[in-house]
Design brief:
This protein has 107 residues and is of the alpha/beta class. It is 39% helix and 25% strand.
């Protein structure tokens, strides 16, 4: 499953807040070393949850409005949304097993 990039507030409202499927959001930036470590893990696990969870990435440099709305001050920050509400959040790099546990506990 592909991980989609969100940069527009309208797209955020449709793809994340309005989604009936849980959405795993990876807030990141190109210059962030830990983000570059977590990115491939997010890409990998997106395939394992195909049809159960949507995966999106938000570049904080291109979508500052969305990032500030959720008080994302440290990256990477991963937030799992269900029915438009935050159900789990991870600040800082995490292993594949840690991210899967976050998803499994909430889905």
């Amino acid at each position: 499953m592909a991980v989609s990039d969100i940069t527009e507030a309208a797209q955020w409202e449709t793809d994340v807040i309005g989604s009936s499927t849980p959405v795993f959001v990876d807030f990141w930036a190109e210059w962030c070393g830990p983000c570059r470590m977590v990115g491939p893990i997010v890409d990998e696990i997106s395939g394992e949850y195909e049809g159960k969870v949507k995966f999106v990435k938000v570049n904080v440099d291109k979508a500052g409005e969305i990032s500030s709305r959720y008080n994302v001050f440290s990256i990477p920050t991963m937030i799992l949304f269900k029915n438009g509400e935050i159900v789990k959040q991870q600040v800082g790099a995490a292993s594949k097993d840690q991210l899967k546990k976050i998803i499994d506990e909430a889905v």
